Amino acid sequence: MTAVPVLLYHSVSADPPSWIAPFTVSPQVFTEQLDRLADSGRTVVPLRRLVAAQRGGPPLPENCAVLTFDDGFADFYWTVAPLLSERGLPATLYLTTGAVHPPGEEPPGSLLPPAEMLNWRQITTLDAYGFELGGHTRTHPQLDTLARGRLCEEVSGCKDVMEEALGHPVTSFAYPHGYSSAAVRRKVRAAGWTSACAVANQFSSQADDPLRIARLMVRADTGATQFESWVQGRGAPVAPRPEQLRTKGWRLYRRTRAALGRPVGGPPTD
């Protein structure tokens, strides 16, 4: 299987809030990474093209990559979009709708700590410029720990809010924290999302599951050597791969803690 690096970014900022700083790259580093992609000869394709290939459509270019961004930080509008536009590069931006607000107003609420997030005026501008906008739930919960009613609110409600604001269908989804389960994926499919991104820290491929697309998370500590390995198709396994026993155990632990009213955060380190 040909390895397709689907790169996951969060914030691109020189001065991020401390809670997102480990998942932030500076504008200078981001620019260098875009240059590395270009120098490698990789073609950055829209996520929808990868999904189409996974569903039996036209094959992908031999040497391609995909850019994705989670949560909806305002620096996508001020920093990322100009850098991508001047290079003619597509990207998919996943929005936590409870963190989005009309200009000058407070957001309706999410589990994300305070940060400068996009407003709807900026989002509609990004939409007009051709960036793909996808859903990332309403409040950014761990979906695989939720009861059925709350799960529906997060998955379907997010879609309703986005489509009302944008005036057209949205079909791409991303799981907060990368967490999903068979039941969550069934709900995502039933809500009308036709693709969904996980994390996995694996390459995707044309054989990958379009409702569980593997991504490589670019963090503050992702060094130039590691990034270059990904660009060259090395340094990570290629999806699809069976779910590991430790992943199932971690899900059970998180569900138990959530049921006790003591939810936990991210996954254990390898």
Automatic annotation (TrEMBL):
It comes from the Bacteria. Gene3D superfamilies: Glycoside hydrolase/deacetylase. Its main location: secreted. It comes from Kitasatospora nipponensis. This is NodB homology domain-containing protein. The keyword Signal applies. Residues 63-270 form the NodB homology domain. It is found in: Secreted. Transmembrane segments: none annotated. Keywords: Signal.
